[in-house]
Amino acid sequence: MTDVTAGAPERARGGSLLEGSARTKRRRAREWRMKAYGIGAIVLSLATLFVMLATILMDGVSAFRQATITFPVTVDAVIVDKAGNRNPEEMAKVTTIGYKRLLSQAFVAHLAAEGIDTAGVPEKDLGDMLSDDGPARLRDRVLADPSLVGQVVEVSVYATGRIDGYLKGRVTRATAERDTNVTPEQLDLADNLVAAGILTMPFNWGFLTGPDASDLRPEASGLGVAIIGSLYMMVLVAIFTVPVGVAASIYLEEFAPKNRLTDLIEVNISNLAAVPSIVFGILGLAIFINFMGLPQSSSLVGALVISLMTLPTIIIATRAAIRAVPPSIREAALGIGASKMQLVFHHVLPLAMPGIMTGTILGLASALGETAPLLLIGMVAFVTNYPAGPFEGGVMDPATALPVQVYSWASRSDPAFIERSSGAIIVLLVFLVIMNVAAILLRRRFERRW
Amino acid sequence: MNDMRLVERDVSNRQAKIEARGVQVHYGEKHALKDVDVAILDRTVTAFIGPSGCGKSTFLRCLNRMNDTVASAKVAGRITLDGQDIYDPRIDPVQLRAKVGMVFQKPNPFPKSIYENVAYGPKIHGLARSKAELDEIVETSLKKAALWNEVKDRLAAPGTGLSGGQQQRLCIARAVATAPEVLLMDEPCSALDPIATAQVEELIDELRSQFSVVIVTHSMQQAARVSQKTAFFHLGSLVEYGETGQIFTTPQDPRTEAYITGRIG
Question: Cα-flanking dihedrals φ and ψ of residue A22, to 5°?
Fold first, then answer.
C-alpha cells in the first residue's frame, strides 16, 4: 500500500547483494518495529499477570495455616451434664458459655502445669486468647459422644484472629497497644506458647471445609458452604446447558432453514452472550424467585440464572465446532446415502466433540467465576449451615458460591478477612486451573485427525 | 494426443439408465445449467468434459440430488432413473443416493478404520444381516476397488493413514459397497499421481461391467481412455453428446473442436 511510489521505479542495477538498498532497509525496520510492539504487548500482559498472582499469593497463602492451641481438657460432668444421666437431649441445655468456661479453666490450668510465665496477663485475657469457635466445637463433640463426659480429652482450639495475625506478622506490639482486642502481654505469652509447642501453625483444613463465621471470630470462617454451593451449581449448570445448548446448535447448524427468523435467532444468541451478567440476575430474581417461588439463596436458582448466561457461550462454541467439521466428510456421508440424522450423529458430532467439550468446560469455568447475578438472587447471604446432600434437596438449601464468598469477605471490616478473601481467590483459581486442564486433556483425548 | 486409445468403441448396451430432459439449475441469480438433455446408458462409462465452471459438476450433482444440500440451488426439468422422476417429492434422496453412488474430487475417507469406511454404507442401508455377510461385502468391495491386497492385513488401521491413491480407491470401495446402479465420479483423479490415476482408470473400466459410470474430468486424454460416451459442456449448456471416438475425431460443433484442440478452455 504505502510501498507504492509515484513515478518510475528506480532500480539500482548492478548493486551488491551484500548491501541492502534503502527500500529493503525501510521494510526491515518496519518489520522490526512490528515485532517489537508484539513482544512489548506480551511482556506487559505477563508482567500484569505476574503482579496480580504475586499479590494474591502473598496475601492469601497465610490463610491456609492457622494458629492453633492444643491442650487437655477434663470434660467436667458438673458443668456439662448436671442431671448426670448422659442424655444428649438434656445435655444440650448447656450452652457454649458453659463450655467456654470449661475451656478457659483447662487452658489456665495447663499453662500453670507447664510452668509457663503468665505474668501481666489477667486470667480473663488468657481465656480470651481462645477462639469462640472452640467451645462450640467441644460442645458438638461431647453431644455426639456423651461417653467423653468425665474424661480428659485433648482439644485443638483456634487462637483468636489477633494472635493468629501476630504469628503471621499482621499484628505487631505497636498495633496491639491501640487495639482493645489484644494486649502486648498476650503477644509475649503467645511467643512463650510457641516456644513450648502449645501454640502451633498447622494446615488449616477448617478454611476449606468450615462454614462462614462472623466478624467476631474470623479465625473460624471457612469456604465449606461456598465450595459445596459452587459444586452444586456447576453440576446443575452442566445438566441444564449441555443438552439444550448442543441440541440447539445441531438444529441451527444442520437442520434449520436459512431465513429471516433463523438469522434473527442467530443474532440474538450472539447478543445474549454480551448482555451484562447483572441483567440475568434481575431476570432470575423476577422469574425464578418472585414468579416461580423458588427459594432464595439456593444453588438451584443460582444454577438456573448462570445457565441462562452460559447457554449462548456454549451454543456459539458448539456451532463453531460443528462448522469446523470439513465439508468433505459431510459430502462423503450424504453421498453414500446417510440421512441428516446419521450424518450428524455418526460423523459430525464425533468430530466436533473435542471442540464442544472444550467450549462447554470453558463456559462452565467462566460461570464458576460469575458473581454479579448471584448477588441479586441472595447468594451473598451469611450461611453457616451446610446445604443437605444433593439427593436430599440440598440444591434448594441456602448456599453461597466461591466468588460471592470472596466478595463478602472482602467487604468485612476485620483485617483477618483480607488474607481469607485472597485465600478464597486462590481456591477459586485452583478450581479454574483444574477445569482448564480438564478441557485440554479431553481435547487431546478425543481429537482425531482427518 | 498420441496416447489416446480410440478403441473398443462398441457401445453394446443401448438402454438408457438416466434420462435428463430440459434440466435447468440456478444458483441464486446465476444460471448455471441451461436446458440440458442427455440420456446416460446402462453399463457404459460416460465422460463429461468442458472448461472450468461450465456446469458439468453441477449436472453430475443433480443426478443424485447432492445439490439439495446447497441452499441457493434451484433445479428445474426432469431427470429420471429407470423411468422414475428423481425429483418427485415422494422420492427419498437417501434411497436415491444408495442407488446412485458418488466419488468425489478429493479423497474423503471417514476418520475411521478402513473396515468401518467400507462397512458404513451397507450398515446404514441394512444390506448385511450378519457380521459374516458384512465382512464379505467389505472384502468384495475392496477387491473391486483393487485395494484388498494392499490393506487386507490392516483393516483396523485408519483410512486416513493411506496414501492419496489408496484413499481414493477406498472411497470407490465405499461407494461400491452399497451396491449402487450408477456411480458418479467428480474428477476422481485430479488429486492423484499418474500411477494412481492409471490404477483408478483401470478400475473404472472394470466397474463398467456392473454399473453405469459417469465421470467428470478435466483431462481429455482420460475421457478418451476410459469412456464410451462423451458429453461436452460449455458455459452451462450441453454442446455436444455422442460416442467418444466421434467427439474426439469428428466433432460436429465448432466449440467442441476448439476445446479439444486446445483453443478454448
Answer: -60, -35
| pLDDT digits 0-9 by tens, A66-83 | 999 999 988 887 777 777
Quick one: fold of B15-260? Rossmann fold (3.40.50)
Residue A256, chain B, CB below 8 Å: the answer is: no
Is residue A385 classed as helix, strand or coil in its secondary structure? coil
**Domain chopping of chain B, boundaries:** 15-260
The rounded distance, in Å, linking the Cα atoms of B195 and B170 is: 16
Look at the block and give the residue holding cell 483423479.
Answer: B189
CA distance B176 to chain A (A): 9
CA distance A61 to A55: 10
Task: Point out the residue among B98, B108, B178 whose CB comes nearest to the CB of A329.
Answer: B108
Whole-prediction pTM = 0.81
ipTM of the predicted structure?
Answer: 0.85
Could you report the per-residue pLDDT of A210-266, keeping only the tens digit for each? 888 888 888 888 899 999 999 999 999 999 999 999 999 999 998 888 889 999 999
Number of neighbours of residue A145 by Cβ within 10 angstroms: 12
Select from B163, B137, B139 the least CA-distant residue to B153: B139
> What is the grid cell recorded at B3?
496416447
Question: Which amino acid is residue A195, in one-letter code?
Answer: A
Residues of chain A positioned with their CB less than 8 A from the CB of B110: 329, 332-333, 347
Cβ-based neighbours of A153, under 8 Å, separated by 6 or more:
A72, A73, A75, A141
Q: Is B173 exposed, middle or buried (0-12, 13-18, 19+ CB in 10 A)?
A: buried
